[in-house]
Amino acid sequence: MPLILLSGYPSSGKTHRAQQLFSDFTARIASSSDPRHTRFTVIQINDQSLGLSRDVYREAKTEKDARATAYSAVKRALGKECIVLCDGLNYIKGFRYQMYCEAKAVGTGSCVVHVGTPIPKCREINARLLANSAVDGGYAEDIFENLVFRYEEPNGMTRWDSPLFTIPYEDEGPPSKAIWEAMVGSDGKARVVKPNLATVLTPATESDYLYELDKTTQEILQTIITWQRDHPGEGGGDINLAKGTVELPASPLSLPRLQRLRRQYISLNRQHTLAKNRIMENFVAYLNNSFQ
């Protein structure tokens, strides 16, 4: 069943909206006469349910670990009969894309629910939560401002952010019916999602595919190492290849890290039917995504 990603500024009321959706969907399942619907369950996953403190957003490492924890929890929960409400900031478009791919890999749909509370109102709510010690909520002011600055608003024109539902602050409730019909289906017709070809394991058809996979990825790694050696002390930079551009991160890349990424990529694509002429651009895209 579908993955519903809630996204919004800190202290925008995402958990409140997630709880409204949880109640609406639970009631709809309980009152449904469709035997297919009665098997559904609804689960809400957020920082609180995972035991994550809001202070994890102060440092890049702890925030990255927190995202990995949330990703793992969602991955475990996704299934044919479970509606997953991922209630969190979900402010990085790359993370939303990763979630979209995970849902599609198991053949279920996904959508993004944008809680559109304006920044001044979020700041007001956050200050009120911080002032009330009896309430579990609120971000430290520096963390709040940093998260607002880094927020990447969902864009319904991209496939990983669509369908996109926006809930204005003034609305009493979310568009539960529209979300249900878009994700679960109406009139007894379930929404069918076909997995990406990249997520379907099929035997490699070209005889020297594994040789080309190994050779091309090794050449790209050697190019990166040579570039870093020739540009000591320079952070970032772009390496133009025949097919694609490697966008280096600000900090230098160690050989062990590059080799680890290469092994992971080869392991993922060893059994895939990937044309040899696409190996370079595909590996470059994989590296750039890993460097973010």
Short note summarizing the structure:
With 292 residues, the protein is α/β, with parallel strands linked by helices.
Question: What report would you give on this structure?
Answer:
The chain is α/β, with parallel strands linked by helices and 292 residues long. The chain is 46% helix and 12% strand. The chain has 10 helices and 7 strands. It has helices at residues 14-31, 35-38, 60-77, 93-105, 119-131, 141-150, 176-183, 209-230, 255-269, 279-291, and strands at 3-7, 41-45, 82-87, 110-116, 164-168, 238-241, 244-247. Strands 2-3-1-4-5 form a 5-stranded parallel sheet, sandwiched between helices. It is globular, with a radius of gyration of 22 Å.
Count of alpha/pi helices = 10
Q: Roughly how many Å is the radius of gyration? A: 22 Å
The helix fraction, in percent, is: 40-55%
Low-confidence stretches: none
Task: Tell how many strands the DSSP assignment holds.
Answer: 7
SSE class: alpha/beta
Overall shape: it is globular
The percentage of residues in β strands lies in: 5-15%
Sheet having the most strands: 5 strands, parallel
- Along the chain, the helix and strand elements come as EHHEHEHEHHEHHEEHH
Mean pLDDT: 87
- Distance, first to last CA: 29 Å
Spatial arrangement of strands, main beta sheet: 2-3-1-4-5
Keywords:
292 residues; alpha/beta; two-stranded antiparallel ribbon; globular
Helix and strand topology:
Layout: E1 3-7, H1 14-31, H2 35-38, E2 41-45, H3 60-77, E3 82-87, H4 93-105, E4 110-116, H5 119-131, H6 141-150, E5 164-168, H7 176-183, H8 209-230, E6 238-241, E7 244-247, H9 255-269, H10 279-291
Parallel strand pairs: 1-3, 1-4, 2-3, 4-5
Antiparallel strand pairs: 6-7
